[in-house]
Amino acid sequence: MIRITTDIPKHLISTIITSNIDENLGNEALEYKGFAVKIKRQGDLNVAARKKSIYIDLPLDIHIEKQNGLFTIEANGIILLNVTITTSISIDLHLNTKTTIDGWKWMEEPKVKVGILNIPVSPLANMVMNRIDDNITNQIDSSIAKKVNFQDLINKKLARLLDCKKISAEPELYLRAQLEGLESPGFREHTNKIELPLYLDIKNQVSTEYQVSADWNSPPFKWIDNDPLKYSQDINISLKYDRIEDIIQSKINGLVIGGKTLKVHNVEINHDKKIHIQVVLTSPIESTLTISGKPVITDGKVQLEGLEVDMKTTSIIYKMTAPIIEKLIRSDIDDRFPLDLQKVIREQMRLELTKAKNIDFLNLRINANEAMLSNAQFTDNHLNATITTKEVEVVILLEHIENIDEIMS
Predict the structure, then answer these.
(1) Is residue 137 part of a domain?
(2) What does the alpha-carbon distance between residue 399 and residue 409 come to, in Å, rounded to a whole number?
């Protein structure tokens, strides 16, 4: 499981709300017992969020006119409406919202500019609430439904990111990921942004061969009460010996041991109770070098127990020097073991994380606390291993997005 946190600037939410309010209020005047009432937005919205709901304080300017003989008496006030947008996400990823007005208060009660006027304050406030409720709340829900297609975000954009990809050129490795499920504790509010954490249950497979991605199925979604105290993600690795042979050949070829440069013609790996690496050399001796040992992995470090080095050659002259070269190679191998695979994994992971920049519309920041080799097994023709990464978080930064359409397009 990994955590994806989307940082949504409050101005994006304000843009959706204000555009609907400004468009639907217009300049139309309401009538109430001889009063002409005009409503328009007054300043910026205040946006807050918690769990499944977004809370908006909506200030509205109320302009009141009433004919009194030849004169028109005018009054102005500011009312603050408390608007709640409650979200729900179905198991098949359909996002629905329900916008309601939960209350109001006068920031400035209507005051008459000229003349005397008895203004029915409470009935006017209720009329304003009904006007907003009847004409705007449904429009907000409709606009969110059109602009924010959560199902498409997961099934199209996220699916594209998780599709089988080459993650390394040397050695050539491919990652295939399948999203098994999503869960979220809901919204959190910060000073200038709303945070939405999603926890993704992902099945990962790294191999030396390109894997055709399986048909994408919508992963199930559920709300959770709290963030998991701990979370980790397993990455399963399967490397065929023929690719490992290529890697070993590229690493050994040109290696200088005891002042002698090794030139490799071929590498072959076999496995029974031990791992046997057979290296055919053309220099410094035309020979076949066999390195055998039982790989034992403890705390992420690989040790070759019962190490044996054997060199065979048909040249009588070279047979005399073979034991010397065997000894040099054995000494070099001893110096390289135990091999700290966890250190190699961490360094590679840090390298890959520094490459993460923009993907599609996303500005990413990726954090990972730890990576460890939790399992490894040598089979007849594969090396299978599991890397466990702890508390991996992908932060999606939308601070430079001016319009929600940029995300959904």
Answers:
(1) yes
(2) 17
Domains contained in the chain, number: 1
Tens digit of pLDDT for each residue in 186-202?
Answer: 999 998 889 999 998 88
Q: Three-state DSSP class for 144?
A: helix
Instruction: Judge whether 217 lies within some domain.
Output: no
**Angle in degrees, 0-180, between the axes of helices 121-135 and 137-147, rounded to the nearest 10:** 30
For 256-296, how does the pLDDT look when each residue is reduced to its tens digit (9 = 90+)? 877 778 899 999 999 888 899 999 988 887 889 898 998 88
pLDDT in tens, 223-254: 999 988 888 888 888 888 888 888 788 878 88
Q: Which of 353, 354, 360, 365 is nearest to 397 (CA)?
A: 365
Residues linked to residue 384 through DSSP beta bridges, in sequence order: 238, 377
**Residue 152 included in any domain:** no
> What range does the domain containing 23 cover?
10-146
* Residues 5, 27: Cα–Cα separation, whole Å: 41
Cα dihedral across residues 249, 251, 257, 262: positive or negative: positive
DSSP β-ladder status, 256-257 and 232-240: unpaired
Task: Say if 169 falls within a structural domain.
Answer: no
The 10 Å Cβ neighbour count of residue 80 is 16
In sequence order, the 6+-apart residues with CB closer than 8 A to the CB of 78 are: 42, 59, 60, 61, 62, 106, 107, 108
- Radius of gyration for the chain, computed over Cα atoms and rounded to the nearest angstrom: 34
Give the closest residue to 290 by CA, choosing from 275, 302, 305, 306: 275
Maximum distance among all alpha carbons in the chain? 128
Alpha carbons 332 and 291: distance in angstroms, whole number: 12
Which helix (H) or strand (E) segment holds residue 125: the answer is: helix 121-135
Arithmetic mean of pLDDT over the chain: 80
Q: What angle do CA 118, 124, 126 make, to 5 degrees?
A: 150
| Amino acid occupying residue 169 | A
Q: Between the CA of residue 318 and those of 140, 278, 310, 322, 327, what are the distances in Å?
A: 85, 18, 14, 6, 14
Q: Phi then psi for 315, rounded to 5 degrees?
A: -80, 125
Query: What is the pTM for the complete model shown?
Result: 0.74
CA atoms of 132 and 145, how far apart (whole Å): 19
